[in-house]
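Researcher: Next entry in the queue.
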Amino acid sequence: MLRERQRSMFGAAAAPLLLLGLAAPAVAAAPPIGLPAGAWAVCPDEKAQGCIDSVTITPDGGVAAPLAAHGLYLEVTTEDEAGISIGWAVKGWNETTVPKEVRDGTVNLELRVGPYPARYTTATARDLSVTRTTTGDGNTTVHLAGRPVQIDWTTGPLLLACLTASDCGGADTMADAGGSGYAFSGNTQDLSAWGEPYLSALDGFHFGSDAQAKPPVVLMVASPVPFWSMVLGGPHLDATGNAARGSFNAWIPPRYFAQHDTNAEAALAVGFDVVAVENNQDVSLPFTARLRDDGVAIDVPHLGYSIKTVNVFNRPSTVDPEATVPDVPGNLTVQPAAGRLGAAWQPPPGDTGPEVETYRARAFDAATGGKVVSSCAVTAPATSCDLPGLEPGGSYWVTVSALNRLGEGVSVAPRVPGTPT
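Model: Structure for this entry, 421 residues:
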């Protein structure tokens, strides 16, 4: 188990900013070390540095091909907002022109970064893997691999607030079409703005998620027991009106464990506990963890939004790794009333997950998509509630979903129509 350190693992100024998903205080950016200013080009020869060595995509079940073969393209830029870093993104994920097997494929990207110390990567991606190869002359090639991820983000009035993890809306806030789709992008940095112990302990750390709000660097906390932490956020509902189910994966490097006088194998033998904190309630999440490249790879496949803190402890978890959100409630009926609709349903049939705690019914202004115009929630075992504030004679479509400690399940579909009197 990781041993407690007596000294603080973060600067006083950096801690509150990280908890908001913001960057730490920036240091003056030094001139790029072998990196181009602005956009990167393809490497012209074997000796060139600060350039794109190669990039391909392998469709699910297919063979590697250039991005252009599938209508995709790559952008890489040198950024200097908080120290020098490298931003990269594969673009063109049009769902009508790019087949699903391509969108489910694996991108392999190699960047020659010269002597630049590419220590840490944060990405919008799934199954992310980042490795480095350094030659005898001190030049490094960064190898990035992963798959594009479905994102459910907002581009409306909450855009900035959600990006900074201050406000991603409430239980009825939906992602919009402009912020929905596929993405594979990220930022690789040298951690120079963070100093020690981040420079040492997080050298090689990488993190991928579909969250709209995610920190530039995870927060390391030393007391009362060592753990690392981050704030993740996004709209609670996707653009179809279903609860957004997020995910993240991370690789914890050997130096992190050495910082705590242990190693990856010993830490894995103790176990990990991935804890989501929302509204002052702690919930251990299902996850998988395995040894990889002398570190530990952690994958959390299901994570609900709006905004929550996620802490990763080196201690045994009591969560059932097969636990899930509830199944769909049954037999939804809608009864008209004066300026409202009454919704009634039955509990999810044969649900074997954690006990249902609440139900939430919503009225939409369209049979599909649309927006939430009214909602109501009740504590189980109650199975009915009224949707108020509706226009008499108006057309509405109602659905309901069940919630347990792991989050909100899939809503009843198709939505049931109703017209208030």
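Model: The radius of gyration is 23 Å.
Researcher: Noted, moving on.
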